[in-house]
Amino acid sequence: MNCVFLTGATGFVGTETLARLLERPEREVVALVRAPDAAGARERLLDVLERLGLEEEAGRVHAVAGDVTTPGLGLTDAERYALADRLDAVVHCAASVSFSLGLRESRAINVDGTRRVVELALQAPGLERFVHVSTAYVAGTRPGSFAEDDLDHGHAFRNPYEQSKWEAESLVRRHRELPLTVVRPSIVVGDSQTGWTSAFNVLYHPLQAYARGLVDTIPADPDSIVDVVPVDYVADGILAALEAPEPPATLALVAGEHAPRLVELTDAAARYFDRPPPALEGEPPDGLEAFLPYFTVATAFDDANARALGLQAPRIEEYFDRLMDFAVASRWGKRPAARPSVTARTSPAA
Ligand SMILES: NC(=O)c1ccc[n+]([C@@H]2O[C@H](COP(=O)([O-])OP(=O)(O)OC[C@H]3O[C@@H](n4cnc5c(N)ncnc54)[C@H](OP(=O)(O)O)[C@@H]3O)[C@@H](O)[C@H]2O)c1
Q: Which of 97, 146, 316 to mutate to test the pocket of ligand 1 (most atoms within 8 A of CB)?
């Protein structure tokens, strides 16, 4: 499997996935990048390679300018046929991860965008794998255990992001002719070895506000499950979905039974920042409204398929301080830092 078509390569998970794909010497990657033209797409991709310290791999990475919200991905027919002809695998990472976007806009990117990537894949005569990056939160607000086979329980969602990702996953699964593995990460944070992250969203927002002394009270369930996984583990899972001889239809990339309760996380943050933990009741702090629904989660994700492949996420207590060291040193993203080189990293805890 030599030629992988990757969407979302300029994003958090996609960047890490690109780095991992390039660790394999035989691989070529074609990345769909939003840009006005081919030169602009190339330039954006070269920026990513520079941040990864992988400039010398530029010859194995090709950028195509496109957009998943545009018919045909914004490619000409000739470009699409040529691309479909050469690709062996697809990793579809591109999405809007905004919790505040409306359902129409979220669907345009996450559902219609997925449909267009599927259309391209179905034109590829040599397609061996299609890895669709979904989210564990397709489980929405359904309480209790949510297995990798679970999808449709008529349940509700916290926001249009979750709903659109559920719809995208349903869409892609309807194409039984695809050699499909759906990967479902939970909340993705920085690298477990180095703390590196290029995205300071989701969990980082409340932690940053707390570190600044802006969170004394937060209405939350102390026992709610905060399932968090490091980005290196997510990339391990995506690579496993591409490379395992017989990958399962779904891989939950989650902490599962090792996921912390909210109170364990607030205690870890209190210890790290040497402040009293927030009271888990009372008024919500300003600006964190979109995240509050994630502090009452009663869903426990089952990851039997992932464990059967030898994947197991590290426990957050093993790497929480590294995440915070990196976040503080990079001023929560204001002073972006290059990703430590792949060779300097040790194997993940999988
Ligand atoms: N981060 C998490 O905690 C998390 C958890 C579970 C699942 N996931 C899933 O993981 C995947 C990647 O998320 P992420 O955190 O890496 O998000 P991200 O950092 O926001 O990256 C999103 C990527 O999608 C691209 N994209 C967005 N709209 C596009 C469009 N219209 N056409 C082409 N590309 C477009 C972005 O390109 P630009 O650079 O041009 O914006 C970027 O490369 C998503 O499918 C997400 O649902 C993420």
A: 97
